[in-house]
Amino acid sequence: MSVEAGSQGEYGAALSAAEAAVREAVACHGTTHPEVLDKLEKFVALLYKAGDTAKAEKLNERAQVLKKILASGVQATRSAQPAESAPVASFMQQTAQVPGEGATGESEIALFNSKGEHVATACDAALYTPEGRNVGRWNEDLCVYLDRSGWYLGQIVEENRLAKDSTWQYRHMNFGEKGNEGDRAGWGRCPDIGPAILPYGFDDVKIG
What we know:
By secondary structure, the protein is α+β, with helices and mostly antiparallel strands. It has helices at residues 12-29, 34-50, 53-71, 86-92, 101-104, and strands at residues 109-112, 118-123, 126-128, 134-139, 144-147, 152-157, 161-165, 202-204. It has 2 domains: 9-92, no CATH class; 101-204, no CATH class. The chain has 5 helices and 8 strands. An 8-stranded antiparallel β-sheet has the order 1-2-3-4-5-6-7-8. Strand 4 and strand 5 form a beta hairpin. The radius of gyration is 18 Å and the shape is globular.
């Protein structure tokens, strides 16, 4: 989601340029690079000046995660893709993935939040808690998970992260009761993995 010129008054052009700088850095260096952090922090500072506190705080959280990743020594390889490549979309825009073989077959896929905590397991197009309680099902037409009551639950991003698109146009629409797929026994919580930066507009899914 791009900043529209003039949307923040006198800061409109500067905001657009700052966002473009972040996109360019991601396209050139990947999502985990000091140059990306530098451009992102400048963009956040400008957003605060322009009064867009909500967006600034959300991107600042992303910057803090990136800072931790860089401090741990993890760095993405340089991308040779153009400016609007997959890494840019993944970092700045709202891109979701369909479940892989594990969500449509019998092998399980562990899904994590942005902190790297195991929050759900996908299996046979259904979604479960790490302990095996059924909480939702994949909707092939919408390419999202719906909860058992038919409300939008979330989707897979960054290969193994379960996240909710806060801007999805149908997020407040009910798609009808999806029933119970039944619980699965014998599962458990997987060890934590490293943190990740969710695509722009996505938040962690809270499963009760």
